[in-house]
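User: Here's a chain of 181 residues. Predict its fold as tokens.
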Amino acid sequence: MRAAIHATATALVFASMPVGAHAQGISRQEAIAAVFPGATVTAERVFLTAAQLKDVLARAGTDPASPLVARYVASINGQVVGRAYVDTHTVRTKKESLLIALDAQGKVRRIDVTAFEEPREYQAPEPWLRQYRDRTLGDDLGINKAIRPIAGATLTARATNAAVRRVLAIDSVLREAGGRQ
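Assistant: Prediction complete.
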């Protein structure tokens, strides 16, 4: 199911999306507007097939939590300029939601924490998240490889890295399947 939403109407969609009782950071609307200024944004729900789920696991090394994927496709003058995915996962015992924005070629542009229910001291700081910029999915995309760890927040670092790997794998699988680019 696809629902087209112009950038001027995105406030209505994003305002209705819960981001957690203890959310830290910015809203999805703010994050999308910041990473894709002036773009028309289309919100999509994509259902991955069993074969696609298996492919994502093989590429990312981690299963998607659900075959239902929430993504936003940003375009300017009909040209896709990027995509953003919501990844909600458990860090230790509570949820974190990340909005992971990719450029048109599938490289990470930005990661925003839209919900974090663990104690605030375990949340990944924005400078740490910036090290994912321009990254693609590869063997080096891991903690203590291309990504440095976070002292005192190992579980957050692992959960974030798994989320980025998952999103990059999902995006790659969908683009190969002929999804919107």
